[in-house]
Amino acid sequence: MKILVGEDYKQMSRKAANIISAQILMKPDCVLGLATGSTPIGTYDQLVDWYNKGDLDFSKVTTINLDEYKGLEPTNDQSYRYFMNTHLFDRVNINKAYTNVPNGLEPDSVKACNEYNEIINKSGGIDLQLLGLGLNGHIGFNEPGSAFEKETHCVDLTESTIQANSRFFDSFDKVPKQAYTMGIKTIMQAKKIVVVVNGANKAQIVKDAFFGPVTPLVPASVLQLHNDVTLVGDKEALSLVLDYVK
Fold this sequence. Notes:
Elements: E1 2-6, H1 9-26, E2 31-34, H2 41-52, E3 62-65, E4 67-69, H3 80-87, E5 99-100, H4 109-122, E6 128-131, E7 153-156, H5 159-165, E8 178-181, H6 184-188, E9 192-197, H7 203-211, E10 229-234
Parallel strand pairs: 1-10, 2-3, 2-6, 3-5, 6-9, 9-10
Antiparallel strand pairs: 4-8, 7-8
Helix pairs in contact: 1-2
């Protein structure tokens, strides 16, 4: 595993964007696995900046997102399709037909998951997967549990996640209770993985996930078994593991 340290969030975002841009330049028709959440926003902003300067071309890129809330329309401003359109897809020359997010409007969970697995398989596999890291070690919506979930599956959101999300909705009843997410096996099959972390509140889980035991209780710990993982963080998030940085 490689560890890249940024002085702050902006430098962390630039370092992560460097890796993604290199992937696009080396393989213009690459398949990118993408993540949502606050941490990757700076990375997407940097990629857009380089696109605007004429340094990047997204026209042949295929994207596969990690997850989506079940029951939310793509136009809902809390859906992950809306997030990706806002922060990346609408700002570059990517072909929307090549961008993939789980179908949150498919009520049949088995059908939705099988269809997304088929999309991933037909893509030929993910060249580079971007990940954030939850405070409890979750990646995608793969929460701590008794086993590593393998492929795309429907998860019941934890009470803490539902409560945390409630501030984004008009009423508690409108908060999604389930989500579709890419599984651990699919994530691990990506050729390259980039994990972005920032903030002092992530320091302990970074240490637990990357330097503790591999266990489903800390889903991200499985990344220790992947042969090409780059952890990119600011000094605060990496404060407990700086001794491991060469």
